[in-house]
């Protein structure tokens, strides 16, 4: 019986194949790394399927997007009000002290109402998103279960039992927040950037120019995260799927395992598989910390240059 490879050897092999794929070398023979690189045509197909799946909920998605957009616009009023207080009220020599106090009280009351309205909109939007995610997840899980029931016996034999359970539970749970992170947040973020930069150009074009120059590094950081970190999490999900399938097979045939005295080997295989997942997770965490450090230097650096 061939000895099991250690988690270190498996992790080194994973990193070699990963570097080869990211560097543009010919695709590795290992099927486990095939999902690391997908063409734009495949991504477009996934996007079409995704929006086709969301089409029955389009009115709710548009309403949630509208609420997020209103909240983003209202958030821009706070710094403008602060600017008005500093420039037109506090340092104004022509305005009497009593009038300054009355103006400050009115502005403070208006800003308090604005903050309460923004919080109410955000809370209501979050609740609508939770309801929408629950409905999408339920529909997806039900359709997936019906699909599994109608697969042929040959197709079911190719699927590992752990893979079926993983797709019905863990994979569908990961879709939670997909509408928010994939549709609402990117759209609102793009509109917020446009509005913020427009206001900055209206206030001071040199400050706006510095803020605009910070956009390309942010895009590069996000691109690095997508290229380097997300594929690792994808392979981790595949590893966990294999682990779940193996556990189901072991305890489904526990009599055979004990008859051939394979307890120790199965213990080692389980430990090695989990340890390999941990190594990948630590690699992903290290890359995320590097990207986070870039963010941590970029944002204060931009603020320092603006000042």
Largest sheet: none
Instruction: Determine the mean pLDDT.
Output: 77
Radius of gyration: 27 Å
Low-confidence stretches: 24-37
- Give the N-to-C terminal Cα separation: 68 Å
Strand element count = 0
**SS class:** mainly alpha
Overall shape: it is elongated
* Helix-strand string: HHHHHHHHHHHH
Q: In percent, how helical is the residue content?
A: over 70%
Strand content: under 5%
Q: Helix count?
A: 12
Reconstruct the topology from this structure.
Blueprint: H1 7-22, H2 40-54, H3 58-90, H4 97-149, H5 153-158, H6 161-174, H7 178-203, H8 205-213, H9 215-228, H10 230-252, H11 254-259, H12 263-306
Walk me through this protein's architecture.
It is a single chain. This protein has 307 residues and is mainly α. The protein contains twelve helices and no strands. It has helices at residues 7-22, 40-54, 58-90, 97-149, 153-158, 161-174, 178-203, 205-213, 215-228, 230-252, 254-259, 263-306. Mean pLDDT is 77; it is low at 24-37.
